[in-house]
Design brief:
heterodimer; A: 289 residues; Immunoglobulin-like; rod-shaped; disordered N terminus; B: alpha+beta; Rossmann fold; seven-stranded mixed β-sheet; 32% strand; disordered C terminus
Chain lengths: 289, 459
Amino acid sequence: MHLWQATAPFCLLVAAALPAAAASSWGFTDATVAVQPKGAGVNGGFKETLSVSKPLSKPVSLAGADTLRVTLTTQEGSSAKRPHQAFLLLKDSETGLDISYPFTVKENGKSRVELTQKELPIQFLSVSEPIDARVVIGSFGSSDAYDSSIFPLSIERHPDHPIPTFEAARYGKLPEINHVFKDAATSPPVIITLAFVALVGAALPVLAGLWLFLGANVSHLPTAFKSAPLPHAVFLGSLFAFEGIFFLYYTSWNLFQTLPAAAVVGAVAFVSGSRALGEVQGRRLAGLR
Amino acid sequence: MRWCLALLICAFVATVNALSSSGSRLLVVLDETTEKSTYSTLWSDLEARGYDLSFESPKSDKLSLFEHGERAYDHLLILPPKSKGLGPSLTPKHIVDFLNKDGNIVLALSGKSSTSSAVSSLLLEVDIHLANDRSAVVIDHFNYDTISAAEKHDVLLLQRSTPLRPDVKAFFDGEGVLALPRVAPQTLGSDSQLLAPILQAPATAYAYNPKEEIPSPDDIEATGSQLNIVSALQARNSARFTVLGSVEALEDKWFSASVKAPNGKKVPTVNREFARQLTGWTFKETGVVKVGKIEHHLATEGEVAAEDLNPKIYRIKNETVFRIEVSEYSFDKWVPFEVPAEDALQLEFTMLSPFHRLALQPISRTETSTVFGTQFVTPDQHGIFSFRVNYKRPFLTNIEEKHEVTVRHFAHDEYARSWAISGGWVWIAGLWAVIGGFLAFVIVWLYSAPTVNKVKKTQ
């Protein structure tokens, strides 16, 4: 077990170092990636040599009007040869989106591909992480095809230019909507209301006190009830009953219950009131008022 | 007598068992009857699932998709013809008419020979595009069968794909390797929401015309996952149309073949299982959803009386309950429908535009259905509203339910009483102060005696 663990990396190393030992496989040599800003000469801008086995560690950045150029010579085993498929494959690991740009390959394996931002699908313009740029070389027959990451490509956008978006209609769930209700009617704080209620309620004692100060009294009550007890009792009762009817109308009764009751009490108040007021007139005529 | 009845029930169960939810008449359009034996396993599998297969040649005079203006078959399976077109009775118009009348179609293509222009123009009707010269084949130098296509690399070995979106139900996934010989690739128009890829080519794949030597960069139209091997269209009427790029994948030979990828092990193919998934979905054995009972009522404690169910009228700000029962067909029976993990069955309460759009949660489940429901407060806006469930998803038949109700405003006696509003207490107190003052005044006026001292003073 331990022995196997110790030798396994070694075996892998050997396997990697001897690609020609197996069936021949595709690869490339003399590979460079260059980014040429617009207007700069052929050798202006960024240029880096690419390796078959290891991708560049730093992302290659492609800005607005720059042209990305990858050149390489395809090889089968160690001899330059033209493959059937030689693609620069861009792959976004986040969305799984992939697109290939075929190399223009000459008979001697010399290949080149040029790429600008305009040729990229607009979905690539908005990705945050660098895109994985791979080279795919393959052909018919038994040789192993080559597919490996060669450099990360970061797309630089001018911060002022909006990123174009593409929204295709697709069936799916839609954002949730919750109706926003109008604000409910509000009342002032209860303490303020209660203060004003107390103020209004205080009007009654103030009125009573004023009347008492001016000499108001109920001294004639025994006299009045002695001379006409029934009219006075019924008249006062009907007045209180009226207010009671209003109270019931306010709390629970409807108009059809209120009107007949008010009619009955009104008639009683009219009849008893005229008697009671007759008694009051009698007192006035007697000089008591 | 009893066994007679039992036999009758048995026979009934047998005919009901394993049937598509939308009929069993399947027409297979085959070029020559000699070709029929190459696909015998597929035919026996379909027959075992309860289909009545009829075979016709595209050139046959008897062949007609319609009879007396109605569909003569429920499903259609078209294998690529060797001749130029599909004949006078299978023009693109007839096939689209068949689709419009709820017929389901599987159209198989082949990369062996170029596809006929009739098929190409049929596919254009549904925004599926073939390669310009109609004779492209998908090649992948990384995922090919080393046994049968060691040189030409045109037998693709692919895993069945999991859905591209996390909110879509998986109908075509599973373990194992599919062998797809000589695939005619399709690209899908991006504007249509009715189209969906079932199986895409791997990123390293590309298409080329085998008659040409080496494709020039300009000839390569689409690569990688833009190439579709199997794609599907579900029309607005939920009729299904599936395009299979490789008809050979349905052959007996590939149902039972063993394949070996480069640097891989020799494994048997799962083509037979995939054919079952593909025909099952297209012929509506899977992915069919059905709405059962729909109930809405005011939210109350306990049971709701029958007369209070589905009222015609609600008031604004009513607490309302909505319930919908949904079943899904799975090969031979209705099962409770389950919403995919990141998807939601949504209820809209709309008047012109939705005021509420709420996710319906599973509440309970019966043997054949799930009851979804939600509770919400009707908006503070009166008018004619409707409960809408508009559930359209790739690979599932459409649900479109609309139930209209009136939402009225408060009646005069439904507002809060004045004593319940604290701001009104001052006015109420004022009213009763006036009433009290009036009664006191009447008593004082009736019974007050003049004060002697004051009279004297004024005199």
